[in-house]
Specification:
Number of helices: 2
Oligomer: single chain
Low-confidence stretches: 1-26
Distance between the termini: 38 Å
Number of strands: 15
Helix content: under 10%
Radius of gyration: 17 Å
Length: 250
């Protein structure tokens, strides 16, 4: 049996029970910012991962589809020998905040799917792994849509999306929901299978003692701000890294 714990998102709270969602409601940011969605595209990545000292390689396909007042993001990841190891999809509408997910589904290697339902008409958010629900106040994201909300905000206000600036969003995952803070880092020239790319690094800031997953995103302004590199790092040092190989605009 092939075990891939580097793909697990760790809960931000160790005791994530039925009361986890309401506990986060007090720090729920609901901020309207200018946004500009990037063009539809298929993003092809090469994948490198490290788990317990072993290096694994694979590929990933990310499909970004904005259409009128709707959007869809679909992700598939494959690893050599293991086949399909991860899928995720985020479907929703576009409102005054930007992306407004309606449904998020995630499927991990040899695990049952998990989901988040954003009931916009009822104004509630519900996790499939948690019996509690919480109110929606606007601007909420899921773990897949958040990257594209960041991109949309950066495209609309590049002069504000500068080194040292911080951006907060409310993000729901498979087990919990809470405020994520991103800090914009320096502009870097990175090597990718597509070639050298100038990109702005954006990092999720984890609270002290958190065992949640670290997320680093490299956005390329010259390439419509698409994510040309993503790195997901677990607290035990395991990681998965995606580097852009090809961009097919649709």
């Amino acid at each position: 049996m092939i075990r891939l714990p580097f793909l697990r998102h760790r809960a931000a709270l160790l005791l994530a029970g039925a009361l986890a969602l309401p506990a986060h409601a007090a720090d729920h940011p609901s901020v309207k910012r200018p946004f500009n969605l990037p063009p539809a595209a298929d993003l092809h990545y090469q994948v490198k991962a490290k788990q317990s000292g072993m290096t694994l390689y694979g590929t990933a396909l990310l499909q970004w589809r904005p259409a009128a007042n709707l959007y869809r993001v679909n992700v598939e990841m494959h690893a050599m020998l293991a086949g399909k190891i991860f899928t995720a999809s985020s479907d929703g509408i576009v409102d005054g905040y930007g992306l407004a997910p309606l449904a998020f589904v995630e499927k991990r290697f040899r695990k049952s799917p998990t989901s988040v339902t954003f009931n916009r008409s009822a104004g509630t958010l519900q996790l499939s792994t948690n019996s509690a629900s919480m109110p929606l106040t606007g601007g909420e994201q899921d773990r897949t849509s958040i990257t594209w909300q960041l991109i949309a905000n950066a495209r609309a206000a590049p002069k504000a999306f500068t080194t040292g600036s911080t951006w907060q969003y409310f993000v729901a995952g498979q087990r919990d929901a809470g405020t994520w803070t991103f800090k914009v880092g320096a502009t870097e020239k990175i090597r990718t299978p597509l070639g050298k790319v100038t990109a702005l690094r954006v990092a999720r800031l984890l609270p002290p003692g958190s065992e949640d997953q670290q997320l680093d995103i490299w956005l390329a302004p010259a390439l419509d701000w698409y994510p040309v590199k993503l790195r997901f790092t677990e607290s035990d040092g395991n990681y998965i890294e995606q580097s852009i190989e090809r961009i097919d605009k649709k």
